[in-house]
Amino acid sequence: MKSSEKDNKNSLSQRQFCSIMCLKPIPFTFLLLFLGFYVALSTPEDPINCFSHNTNCTITNSYATFPDRTICEAQQVFYPTQEQDILRVVASATRNGKKMKVATRFSHSIPKWVCPEGHNGWLISTKYLNRVMEIDAEKMTARVQSGVTLKQVVEEAAKAGLALPYTPYWWGLTMGGILGTGAHGSSLWGKGSAVHEQVVELRIVTPAPPEHGYAKVHILTEEDQRLNAAKVSLGLLGVISQVRMLPCTITSFNFLFLFVFFFLLT
Length: 266
What we know:
Blueprint: H1 3-21, H2 28-41, E1 48-52, E2 55-59, E3 72-78, H3 83-95, E4 100-103, E5 122-125, E6 132-136, E7 141-145, H4 150-159, E8 162-163, H5 175-181, E9 199-207, E10 215-221, H6 226-231, E11 239-245, E12 248-249, H7 252-265
Parallel strand pairs: 3-5, 4-5
Antiparallel strand pairs: 1-2, 2-3, 6-7, 7-11, 8-12, 9-10, 9-11
């Protein structure tokens, strides 16, 4: 084949490639809106399924699979709505020698942290621990149950002119799950982007000796060194019932920054 014919074929193939790959780019703002609607409307299924009323259950995660492609089993699942319910479940499990694991509303973590050991274990779901207890605009604090979603906190704090400085990307995460796994946003400013750095008080229910009724509530504040361990405990130290954190104030500077940021994107 002559060199001119080779050059023509190479040129043609380059033009064909460019016609496929060099399409008119989609406006960035439209892409963001599309992704936002997709994420908002794509609610994962409940990760816990039971063959009878809250017994003989299986649990997976929001991706519907663990790394080893297995589905974990549990003898029973409990859905507390308040701290007293957690105390009763933990006390009963401790008294009967049952292994317990805490499951969040959508079980978003990839590792098998929610799996009790074998079919005889118990699950404690925070699905209905979903109340925002208090937003104090004067003290700039928010007190919530551990099953409250990130979306709930952001919306309720905004009503009081407050906001979380940094958050993970998905609004379906729960505050207990965020703290237990050390979830974070992206920044080195201030205390950094980890949500647990904003926590000033935490209530956690743990197993206890018989003289304490087999379960106990610990109220951990910033003066208590155990708070650092309980904040990112991977669910191994107990069941977080309530969290108090410090959102920041939404100021005109924040709005100006956001306006300039989105203006530059477009």
